[in-house]
Amino acid sequence: MKQPARSLSRLAPQGLWRGRIKALLATLMISVFVFYGFLAMDVSRTLLSSIGSDRVMADSIRVREMAEAGVALDKIPATTVSPAWMTLMASATSGRYTYGRDSVWDTEMYYVSMPSSHRIILSAHMALGGLCMALGVFQFWPAFRRRRPLLHRRMGMVYAVSAQVSMLFAFGYLLLTPVASIYSTLVFAVGLWILAISVTVSLWMSIYHILRREIAQHQVWMAMNFGFLLTAPLLRYDWILMGMAFPALSQGEVNLSVMVFLIPQSFLVGYGLLCMNRWLQKDRREAQTLPVTARMRQWFPLWSPVVLLMLLGAAVSTVRYFWLTPGMAASALAQALVPAGVVALDTQLLAPAVVARALFTLSALLVFAAAAGFLFTAFRTEHTDARQLARMKTLGLVMALAGVINALVQLHWGYALGAPSHARLSGGTFYVLNGLILLPFAIASGWAALTGRHALLREWVIFTALAAMATPSFYSSLVMLKLVGIPAVYVAAGHGYMLAASSGSIALLLGFGYSAYGSATRAKVPA
């Protein structure tokens, strides 16, 4: 029997706009990162061209002197020794910001002084990273995967080999280069090690899953892998945007903020790729079954107490350092590992803010308590009855409301602390970052609870809890740093503070891991 024609007047506009949004997202992403891929290859070219040239260091010093003297950008002969991305940054900001003292030009000058073998290693790392940018962005384009599956697989193989070899060169550079010679020294060196290890682990997890034909999980780990690889372009874009927003700051001062939010930012880009990928996919009739999900439920009595201890620790830290004895001045570890000026600044902000501290403490405790209840309601079994679903909705709404309040308080504190500087380090970045991460996940949890999207609710509740734990976990991070030990020179420069401030949001990777195997991903047909 002939089917009735569908109403084009109703369906065409929706399909048209959906198609336009897809095309816009794909075009924007491809343009931004393919462009940076070529910039990265240009850095490689610049490094190699300096080998055997005695004039490069002299020209680099001359560029520094002219920038410090305030010479107009078009009069500074930087193009002969500067990578293209730095020339673009100078055009968007200023010559002094890019080439002056307390800028990334210090590192560029160090590159010139390195032995030729070291420059070749770094050049190869950057060139392969640029190739990954140019290839990888196409791999997340569903239409490309559908229409060119063979090309997709071949490009994926080239990408995988390039990414792994690039990381091997990165490990080589980090092992050969003294920490004092790495840009921003200790905190940046630690970040580079974390990123190189994360890229390697996520790459091999994606390979493991594609060999098992678990396409959805392969795509999730590749999204994480590409997100971590994007730290290089995101870092440069951040420097440019913040330099334009805060023209009075030096590039080194701007970097004090960038170092705190760079890894979380890369994670969020990777998670955004994952969400976009799922948005473009069709629903399964029944969620995919994986051995790991069955083991998660089987091992619930083993891992759930660990989660409860984490929530309890965050609750105790919140009560102690944000209500009973507010500020870093109450922590002996903070006084030992954080510059005195930053300790005083934090305490001066929190001590008189009785109402804000009460809202922060109460909302955080509600998030942690609701998360504990949600854990035992939603994760013991794959399928839940109507009573459990109703309880999940209630707990999700409580977490959403409390999370929004908690995030808004942190944004207020971040605004009060202001922009970064060498005296105040990252300024309000710590609170602003945690607030900006928590706010959308809390809102998303509330939306998922109200609309009955239980698979997404499970995922976003996890992220809401982890994001709420990031701020109080600052103090537990100080314990770890004390055990590891930080040289006094780096403590005085604020590296203990910045490492602790950025470490809390790294726990979001646990949520990303759940996303790979949670029902929201398993309920989609990979495309």
Structure in words:
There is one protein chain. The chain has 527 residues and is an all-alpha fold. Helix 6 packs antiparallel against helix 8 and helix 11 packs across helix 12. Helix content is 78%, strand content 1%. Strands 1-2 form a two-stranded antiparallel sheet. The chain has helices at residues 8-49, 55-68, 84-92, 95-99, 105-113, 116-139, 142-147, 149-176, 185-211, 215-229, 231-245, 251-279, 291-298, 300-324, 332-337, 340-350, 354-378, 386-417, 429-451, 454-469, 473-484, 488-492, 495-503, 508-517, 519-522; strands spanning 282-283, 524-525.
Low-confidence stretches are 1-11
Distance between the termini: 31 Å
How many helices? 25
Rg from Cα: 25 Å
Strand fraction:
under 5%
Mean pLDDT: 87
Overall geometry comes to: globular
Q: Which H/E pattern describes the elements?
A: HHHHHHHHHHHHEHHHHHHHHHHHHHE
Give a count of the beta strands, DSSP E runs of length 2 or more.
2
Within the largest sheet, what's the order of strands? 1-2
Task: Supply the helix-strand structural class.
Answer: mainly alpha
Helix proportion: over 70%
| Biggest sheet architecture | 2 strands, antiparallel
